[in-house]
Amino acid sequence: MSVGVPNRLYAAITGIGGYIPANTRSNSDLEKICDTSDEWIVKRTGIKERRILEEDLATSDMAVRAIEDLAAKYNKNLHDIDALLVATSTPDMPMPATANIIADKLGLDNVWAFDMNAACSGFLYALDLGASLIETRRYKNVLVVGADNISTYVDIHDRSTNILFGDGAGVVWLEPSTEGGIMDAYLRSNGSGRSFLNIEGGGSLYPMDAEDAMADKRFLKQDGKTVFKHAVQSMSDACFQVMDRNGLTINDINWLVPHQANQRIIDAVGRALDIPEGRALSNIEYLGNTIAATIPLCIWQNLKQIKTGDLVMLTAFGAGFSWGASLFKWMI
Ligand code: UT7
């Protein structure tokens, strides 16, 4: 089957890069800190270890390394970048945007750069915005980063969250193409879900001070069961929306790249979509949930399988609640 509209200008992914910190936090490390076990964590989440960024580094440092990885592998000149979009919930600081810090560290002094926060759906949101910029024909080279240093917001003693999250950064380079690229995106949010997954402290409602830190507001909190149910339902629905409005069935999709929050969520979405075995990609086992970085990192680590012309569907769910799905033709 052929997907695409003649004469349409697409934003195609023409490069991908990633960075994962060297330090690992294994299940046996967590067994020493709280009442949990490797067996429980693997069975309930599929995760064996996560990567933890060094304390003196921040989100921008991982993003810079991911971008450098992309530039080296795909022979890109960073001075060609027109726009740099950074999806993150863990900016280096409230101001300026982490995108500005990344640009400065890369020696780029006149790039349009800003952050967007849609939590675990952030990469999908930023990818669609980046594609839209290309489609205006005013931008020719757009970088879309998903990066999070979420370990700084995880209470190491809280077994309901410390088992899940790790740090990382992924990035894609978008360029115009008349052959294919980002075909569609369906993105939604519902702020009434904010009580089930959040980091309350450090914003304008609860500015960070010693008292708040004592009250634990600086840590990520979630109602895991509620988030789990909404994640499966919303990601499946979003995928059906994208397939329906493009006249596709699951058999047309070569690869599904779901947000990597829990292997059981990935499997449940796969079952809901009835995707053939092996077509839902996963790299959660050794990285955990890296928030906005999961999707680009999952593609980056599975590149050998993805062939030119393959149709790839992405789907994510996260705090907000925010969720969505997008579809692209792999053009590399
Ligand atoms: O990007 C979006 C971010 N978040 C998510 O997607 C999170 C989605 N939720 C989840 O992944 C799962 O809900 C969790 C992994 C957080 C929890 O798994 P669960 O299967 O929902 O477990 P549960 O909370 O229902 O707990 C089941 C049992 C309880 O014991 P009892 O009451 O049955 O005796 C818990 O106390 O497991 C116990 N438990 C644990 N045991 C060992 C809960 N956490 C742990 C733990 N180690 N870490």
UniProtKB/TrEMBL annotation:
Q: Where is the Beta-ketoacyl-[acyl-carrier-protein] synthase III C-terminal domain?
A: 243-330
Task: List the CDD domains hit by this protein, alphabetically.
Answer: KAS_III
Q: Pfam families from the entry?
A: ACP_syn_III (PF08545), ACP_syn_III_C (PF08541)
Keyword annotations for this protein? Acyltransferase, Cytoplasm, Fatty acid biosynthesis, Fatty acid metabolism, Lipid biosynthesis, Lipid metabolism, Multifunctional enzyme, Transferase
Stretches for region ACP-binding:
260-264
Any single Gene Ontology cellular-component annotation: cytoplasm
Q: Quickly give the catalysed reaction.
A: malonyl-[ACP] + acetyl-CoA + H(+) = 3-oxobutanoyl-[ACP] + CO2 + CoA
Q: In terms of one coarse class, where is the protein primarily found?
A: cytoplasm
Q: What GO molecular function terms would the record report?
A: 3-oxoacyl-[acyl-carrier-protein] synthase activity; beta-ketoacyl-acyl-carrier-protein synthase III activity
The first-level EC class reads: transferase
Q: Which domain of life is it from?
A: Bacteria
Q: Output the SUPFAM superfamilies linked to this UniProt entry.
A: Thiolase-like
User: Active site at which residues?
Assistant: 120, 259, 289
Per UniProt, subcellular location reads as:
Cytoplasm
Which pathway?
Lipid metabolism; fatty acid biosynthesis
InterPro entries per record:
ACP_syn_III_C, ACP_syn_III_N, FabH, Thiolase-like
The free-text function statement in the UniProt record for this protein reads:
Catalyzes the condensation reaction of fatty acid synthesis by the addition to an acyl acceptor of two carbons from malonyl-ACP. Catalyzes the first condensation reaction which initiates fatty acid synthesis and may therefore play a role in governing the total rate of fatty acid production. Possesses both acetoacetyl-ACP synthase and acetyl transacylase activities. Its substrate specificity determines the biosynthesis of branched-chain and/or straight-chain of fatty acids.
Which family is it part of? Answer: Belongs to the thiolase-like superfamily. FabH family.
Mind telling me what this protein is named?
A: Beta-ketoacyl-[acyl-carrier-protein] synthase III
Lineage at the top is: Bacteria, Pseudomonadati, Bacteroidota, Sphingobacteriia, Sphingobacteriales
